[in-house]
Write a structure and sequence with these properties.
2 copies of one chain form a homodimer.
Chain A lengths: L4 H8 L3 H8 L7 H14 L5 H8 L4 E6 L5 H16 L3 E6 L4 H13 L4 E5 L5 H10 L3 E4 L10 E4 L1 H14 L5 E5 L9 H13 L9 E3 L4 H14 L5 E4 L2 H13 L9 E6 L2 H5 L5 E4 L2 H18 L6 E3 L2 E3 L9
Parallel strand pairs in A: 1-2, 1-3, 3-4, 4-5, 5-11, 6-7, 6-8, 8-9, 9-10
Antiparallel strand pairs in A: 10-12
Helix pairs in contact in A: 1-2, 1-3, 5-13, 6-7, 8-9, 10-11
Chain A binds a DNA duplex (30 and 30 nucleotides) through helix 2 and helix 4.
Chain lengths: ~325, ~325
DNA sequence: CAGGCAAACGTAAACGTTTACTCAAATAGG
DNA sequence: CCTATTTGAGTAAACGTTTACGTTTGCCTG
């Protein structure tokens, strides 16, 4: 249907090898032939077939990206960075939405294997043994995003969750708060759960504030759960002056609930988020939060992955810098 | 490296044709051979190579999706629906972020061609002649999302923008508003711009309210532009009682600005959005808006595209139903 | 002017499948 | 028991590239 390299060769009266050579600037042909070939390529509007190429050099110039939820603001910020970097380096991205479902994840991994992707980016999920085994089998480089693992040869890029939470709470304390509640992520989550809780505890302790389990609440990172948690905070621990949420979405849920209960933020209660999604700037008042540079993280992870693909060497994990972005949901208590 | 069909054939003492046959349940082999083959497939952990398969049947089971901005909430809602449908039908998705840049778009189209995608989903952008020509050349089915075209053989799926805007304004009028401003999208945008403005005008006229160009403002669908527009509304047309924004993001920008100017929404001014992104529920007060069923639109468009790929026939365009979702940013004026 | 060498190009195998064609053995029909 | 048909299987071409290797030509050197 589409013209092939063979068509070009025939029309230009050369062999396909020659066409291939001029296509790749490999030398071994005269200027005259180059001209002739270039010319007929234009005439026929010839486009190389990446599939055929992939078959022979065992490279598809494609990477697979797995997200627990593509439609979340978190994932799409990451995806933006990934897409940009990856395309700039002549790769493409195929996205898969795991829905946090092990079966689905495994299925997608199989799919990516069949499609011969050159590497895999695995985001925001813990790398289970069964995933790891399959990945090992595939002999394909993997890098984790916003996650972490002890399995060998799997670098990750993320921020320091413990430190970020610590800094957030430290910030709150510096602003004069002492009765600080936390809306944590999913209970037992070893990546985005426990470390952030630990950061919260340790920061409290460092300032001589006893950890009070009545001030610790669990959500699932989503808006509704933040909203629910805030309701119980308001009921059971109304003396709290500040709430630290382990995600912006939960923080915003808390914010709305507070407002709906007639509280002013930050006058009556301070709220601090985690992530710095685009959202955080858009709510009102704008959310003070700890920033994960998601776009950069996406780019860095892609960079590492492509390095691994092209060099065959294992990249180093990287901890990116977080920062606190002060907006208007935290007040100073005097 | 990985075992191929040939390895399986050798180990099982059959020909590769036989292996291929049992792989595809084509019949023409005894139970005994099937068992033997299935067995060795398991032993070798054989996985078919989709690249080789793609080369021969000229199908990659992959579709390309172009977004102006993958990281927008709008795109990611669409992507969610697309991803789900597409994967359920044994295709994969490769995403491209055009940044609304013609050069980039063309480049991606080329890329998708080289990668031999089976079809293309083109979202939220007008199909320029140069894109269309290239697409024609590629001989690949295309369907437009949230866009429209007169070019033949390119179906689209979207809502009725004129009617949706009309209904929104009609709703506002029914609530007693008469001085209604509009924050429109990009000036001259033939899809998401003009028709919505027309809906606004016509709805006004239908109720005997004269269109007043002082009440029409232009943004670019993004948060900041809504915010800016609101500022000028407040300054130049403070008598306005309701603002209809052509996107949720702009509506939310307007909302924040109103709040920052000490106005209560909806008591002092009503605001209505357009899209019903996840965001709309999260701001506060929750945004009244006209809903585009983005997830469904993504699924429907994917369905049409896959139909076209598999049947070779051109699908019908489809206008999806919009609806007004009442939340708390519009008040009744008596 | 023979010999050698580089430049310019062609030949063909390989990548891992699918599938049209062929063929032998088994079975069925008369 | 012989022929016709079906069943079970193998052979090889094809998909569109890349690339190792081979071949031809012309030119330079001694």
């Amino acid at each position: 249907m589409n013209p092939t390299i063979k068509d070009v060769a025939q029309k230009a009266n050369v062999s396909i090898a020659t066409v291939s050579r001029v296509l790749h600037n490999l030398g071994g042909y005269s200027d005259k032939t180059k001209q002739k070939v270039d010319q007929t390529i234009k005439e026929l509007k010839y486009q190389p077939n990446a599939i055929a190429r992939g078959l022979i050099n065992k490279r598809t110039q494609t990477i697979g990206v797995l997200f627990p939820d593509v439609s979340s603001a978190f994932s799409s910020d990451l995806l933006h960075g990934i897409d940009e970097f990856v395309h700039n380096h002549n790769y493409s991205v195929v996205v898969c939405n795991t829905d946090q479902d092990g079966k689905r994840t495994l299925k997608y991994l199989q799919l990516l294997r069949e499609k011969q992707v050159d590497g895999i980016l695995f985001s925001s999920e813990v790398l289970k043994k069964e995933y790891y085994d399959l990945l090992e089998d595939m002999r394909v480089p993997v890098v984790l995003i916003s996650s972490q693992t002890d399995f060998p040869n799997v670098p990750y890029v993320k921020i320091d969750d413990f430190q970020a939470a610590y800094d957030a709470v430290d910030y709150l304390v510096a602003k004069g708060h002492r009765r600080i509640a936390m809306i944590s992520g999913t209970k037992g989550d070893p990546i985005a759960g426990t470390p952030r809780i630990e950061g919260y505890r340790k920061a409290l302790e460092a300032h001589g504030i006893a950890f009070n389990s009545r001030y610790l609440f669990y959500g699932d990172f989503m808006y509704e759960s933040g909203s629910r948690a805030m309701k119980t905070i308001l009921k059971k621990a109304p003396e709290v002056t500040a709430v630290f949420a382990a995600s912006d979405e939960m923080a915003i849920g808390a914010l709305s609930t507070a407002a709906q209960h007639g509280l002013n933020v930050p006058e009556d209660i301070s709220i601090m988020g985690y992530d710095d999604l685009r959202l955080a700037r858009m709510v009102n008042p704008p959310l003070t939060t700890v920033r994960q540079p998601l776009n950069d993280i996406g780019m860095i992870a892609s960079g590492k992955l492509i390095d691994m693909i092209e060099s065959g060497e294992i990249a180093q994990s990287q901890i990116c810098a977080h920062s606190i972005v002060e907006r208007q949901t935290v007040r100073t208590i005097t």
